[in-house]
Design a protein that fits this description.
about 350 residues; alpha+beta; SH3 type barrels; Alpha-Beta Plaits; 3 domains
Length: about 350
Amino acid sequence: MQNCLWFVGILGLGLLLKRGFSILIGKFLYRFVRHDNISVKECLVILSKPIEFFILLIITYLAFDRLHFPDSWGMISVENFGLRLLISKAFQCVVIGSIAWILIRLVKFLGIVFLKKATITETKLDDQFIPFFKDLAIVAIYAFAGFAMLGRVFNVDVPALITGLGIGGLAIALAARETLENLFASFTIFLDLPFVVGDNILLDKEKVSGDVEKIGFRSTRIRTGDGSLLTVPNRLLTSQALENLTQRNFRKVKYTLKLKIDTPPATLQKITAEIQTLVEKHELIHNPDTGIARFDNIGDYSLDILIAYSLATNDGGVMNKIKEEINLEILKIIQNNKASLAMPNFQIITSFPS
C-alpha cells in the first residue's frame, strides 16, 4: 500500500509541477540565446512541449520505480527477455527521442534568433546559410539519435555498423543517385554562389524567372512573377545556363510601336522625335545614348517605330512600373499628334462562290 501511495504522490505532484519546471528550464535556456526582437514567450512556445514531455518521462520512471509487481505477473528481471525488458527498451528509445526533440526545437529557435540578426546585416549570404545549416543540424540530430538508440538500447556496435555501411555504399549510391546529385549540387551552389536568397534568376531551359526563397538540400524554391512557388532540383540549377537578373546594373527594354499605314510622314517624324526625347530624358534611363526611337520598317498594314532603352534598375517590379509610365507618355504623344495605332487588316468573306 505504501508503494502505491508513493506512486500516486510522485505522479500527481509531477503532473502539477511539470508545467512550472518546463517554464523555468525554458527561461534558463533563453538567457543564453536571447534576442531583443524575440520575446521569452516565443521561446517557451517552441521549447515547452518537448521539455514537458521529457519531465513527464522522468516522473513516470520515478513513479513506477516505487512499484513492485507480483511474481505471478511474469515481470522477470530486466536482464532476461520478457515483458519488462521490452518495456525498458521502449522507454529508453522514447527518452532518447525526447532529448532529440528538445535539441531540434532548440536548433529551430536558434535559427529564428540568427535569422533576426541576419536581417540587420546588408549581405544576403547569412540569410541563405542559416536555414541550410539549421536543416543540416536537424539531420545530424536525427542521425545521432538513431545511432544512440542502436548502440545504447539494442547494443549494436555502431563503429562496426558505420564501417559496414562503407561496403554497401556503392549500392546505396546507385539507388539514391539523383538524391546524391541534388545534395552535391546544393554544396556547389553554396561554394560557387551563382545566386543567394532574394536574387531574381532566369532559368535558361525552363524559360522561367523568379525570386529565390530558399535553397535546401534537394531543391531550391523560386517564387515566380505570377505568385506560383516553383521547386527546382538543385542538380538542374547547376547543369544549365542560369542568369542572375539581380546582378544586372540595368535592364533593357525593346519593342516595336505600329502606327497606321496612312500616317503622314511629318506626323511620323514628329512622333518619333518626341519619343526619342522621352526615352533620353527619363530620370531612370541608364544611359541616354542607349535610348532609341527610330522609324524602322514599313509593314503590310503599319509603319513601325523601333523603341529601345535601358533602365538603371535590377528590380523587375521597378522596371515594369517605369515601362508603364513611358508607355502612357507614348500614348499621349500619339493622341496629341492625332495619330492612331495600326490594326491588322482582315478580309471578311461574306459570300461564297457557287
